[in-house]
Design brief:
The complex is a heterodimer of chains A (114) and B (116). Chain A is mainly beta and 114 residues long. Chain A is built from no helices and twelve strands. Helix content of chain A is 0%, strand content 59%. Chain B is built from no helices and eleven strands. Classes of the chains: A mainly beta (114), B mainly beta (116). Chains A and B meet through strand 4, strand 5, strand 9, strand 10 and strand 11 of A and strand 5 and strand 10 of B.
Chain lengths: 114, 116
Amino acid sequence: QKEVEQDPGPLSVPEGAIVSLNCTYSNSAFQYFMWYRQYSRKGPELLMYTYSSGNKEDGRFTAQVDKSSKYISLFIRDSQPSDSATYLCAMSPIDTGTASKLTFGTGTRLQVTL
Amino acid sequence: NAGVMQNPRHLVRRRGQEARLRCSPMKGHSHVYWYRQLPEEGLKFMVYLQKENIIDESGMPKERFSAEFPKEGPSILRIQQVVRGDSAAYFCASSPRRDITEETQYFGPGTRLLVL
């Protein structure tokens, strides 16, 4: 069993839709959670990060963490064609007060259509 | 403020040759991470370095792979005697990591290695 599970998609939605992307994890030591966006043949671009359970909002993006269920989500409101990319969840434990190597999900490919 | 830089962006090697991948972290960042992304797979951690020190190499294959981050110059990921299975995208990330609020890792554009 992988430490981080993520549905690879592809997920196709119409422009303007609300998108929900999810990851589950099995390692209870994970305390630091991130979402990256990766366009084709580019490097991952950080979208959001959080340490705590609950919601964190940044513009059209909301990250949600439920540590009791080991479940994290990224919501994208008013999706745009430019949001079409692969979305990667990533997480790590926090060792000696600081984070370390990231464990990634396999990524969900999102296509926003006109 | 320049981001993480990696070169070359594309590298073609024949089986048995050596591959050297370079990474210059963001200005002010002294922590470097290397990840590998195989086709249709997520990124896998390889090694974490600070200047002149390897902190965690638990993701590095035991043979043929090595990494360094010298006091001056970029971090280098070196693959000796490459095999076709080494073909992948190799990403470098950096962070300032001065305290818990500065853990975020910023990624470079990657080097795509193709072994013929």
